[in-house]
Design brief:
Layout lengths: L1 H17 L8 E4 L2 E4 L5 H10 L3 H5 L3 H18 L1 H9 L3 H7 L2 H35 L6 E4 L2 E4 L5 H10 L3 H5 L3 H18 L1 H9 L3 H7 L2 H4 L2 H34 L19 E8 L2 H12 L7 E5 L23 H18 L5 H24 L12 E8 L4 H10 L4 E5 L4
Helix pairs in contact: 2-7, 2-16, 4-7, 5-6, 8-14, 10-14, 11-12, 14-16, 16-17
Length: 429
């Protein structure tokens, strides 16, 4: 028994001594999704909280806080009839706006609403600072996890697919990136809001050009929630995938630098090349999982890890500074202003659509297009640097040391695993 205890205790000590402890990690992969820190603009997060409480916190991955505030907004707003009062106020029927508003619930609404905006702004600044520290610490992230309920892993996904699926049904875009909690929450609330607002019957009547019938059937109190929920689903899915793709690329580059940069690798310079001596195969890959498949395939063919040199290349825009300071940390998300502007214009288009000829659905679509265009213009005017960015992936250069007789086989392996190019390097003196 004592021997067993000593062995167990020794194994625990060895495990603890080999494990590196970090104060901060930038991401965690779990069965419910990938939670990560990245730089965000506090102003953008605060605006989303102002548009719909809870949305800003969900963008910060503060899911429980975001869900509570979201449900609070729906419940208190419904009890106070705030959306209905807003509707009457904007069409100039101020007496009706006063009549429908329940002040008992409104006085509960205001303090928590202001707290939501302030807290999301404050949290964004804190998280940006922690992200900077975690980046400097450069802690490793486990890229793959398997569980009895399923599995999750870091992977590259097309942002366009998330946007398109979110446009069809909010929440499905989050499923593209395996963000289970937010996906389930948004899909459930989209069903609730679409049902009680009678959104789909209103769309059907509008498509049949029965605009007056669409105005009559739509529930204004619930319908005004549609633009915020719809566009938040798009924006959240888009930004999640953009940042997840960056995380995937960073993790793979870190892995290659750790595992395939052997310090005694013979660099092909000087007198390394002699007739009949080693051959070098040089190739390049996009920084995706295919590079890892290539190097492991080479090892299966008998090429030692020490004879493989992987050099991940940094993209120029990865080294760019932020636009202003940590308070304006959005340097890549072109959709920030357009999505928020489209949400606002769609809301106004929906409100005034009840008193205009074509109804709330058509005018919401017009408002969306107009707002998106205005947002793009604001984005272009607010950014002083050149907006043209290199959207291609960064690349990885592979150099494989091998015998001349192995060269063709190695080239075939590289081509089969997605090499962008491959060439022999044999410099004779």
């Amino acid at each position: 028994m004592g021997v067993v205890f000593l062995i167990f205790n020794r194994s625990m000590v060895d495990t603890m001594s080999n494990k590196q402890h970090y104060r901060r990690i930038k991401a965690s992969v779990s069965i419910l999704g990938t939670t990560q820190m990245h730089l965000r603009s506090p102003w953008i997060i605060a605006l989303w909280s102002a548009i719909f409480p809870g949305c800003g916190h969900m963008l910060l991955s503060r899911y429980l806080t975001g869900f509570i505030l979201f449900i609070w907004e729906v419940f208190i707003n419904l009890k106070a009839q705030l959306n209905l009062s807003i509707f009457y106020s904007f069409i100039g029927e101020f007496d009706a706006a006063k009549a429908v508003l329940d002040n008992r619930w409104l006085l509960l609404y205001i303090p928590t609403y202001l707290f939501t905006v302030w807290d999301s702004y404050r949290l964004t600044i804190d998280m940006n600072n922690n992200y900077i520290l975690s980046s400097r610490e450069d802690a490793s992230v486990k890229p793959f996890i398997i569980h009895p309920l399923g599995f999750n892993y870091l992977r590259r996904s097309p942002p366009q697919a998330a946007v398109l699926w979110s446009m069809i049904s909010p929440g499905t875009g989050q499923l593209v990136n395996h963000n289970i909690m937010v996906a389930f929450f948004l899909m459930a609330w989209w069903i609730v809001v679409a049902y009680f607002s009678k959104l789909l019957p209103a769309i059907q009547l509008t498509a049949l050009l029965q605009f007056d019938a669409a105005k009559c059937i739509a529930d204004k109190q619930w319908l005004l929630n549609v633009p915020s929920l719809f566009f938040f689903g798009i924006y959240g899915a888009y930004t999640d995938i953009i940042e997840a793709n960056k995380l995937c690329q960073w993790e793979l580059s870190k892995f290659l630098r750790q595992e395939y940069q052997y310090k005694n690798f013979k660099i092909p310079v000087g007198h390394a090349f002699k007739k009949g001596a080693l051959m070098y195969i040089v190739s390049n890959f996009e920084n995706t999982i295919h590079i890892e498949k290539a190097v492991t395939a080479l090892q299966m063919k008998g090429v030692p890890k020490e004879d493989i040199l992987a050099v991940p290349l940094d993209k120029k825009d990865d080294e760019q500074k932020l636009l202003d300071s940590i308070h304006s940390s959005d340097r890549v998300s072109t959709l920030d202003y357009p999505i928020i502007s489209a949400t606002t214009f769609a809301l106004f288009g929906m409100i005034y659509g009840f008193i205009l000829e074509w109804g709330p659905i058509i005018w919401a679509l017009i408002g969306t297009a107009l707002g998106f265009g205005v947002g793009i213009l604001i984005k272009l005017l607010s950014v002083r640097k050149n907006m043209k960015k290199n959207k291609s992936l960064s690349e990885v250069v592979l150099i494989i040391s091998c015998a001349d007789t192995q060269a063709d086989q190695i080239r075939d392996v590289l081509w089969a695993n997605g090499a962008l190019g491959a060439s022999r390097l044999s410099l004779e003196p």
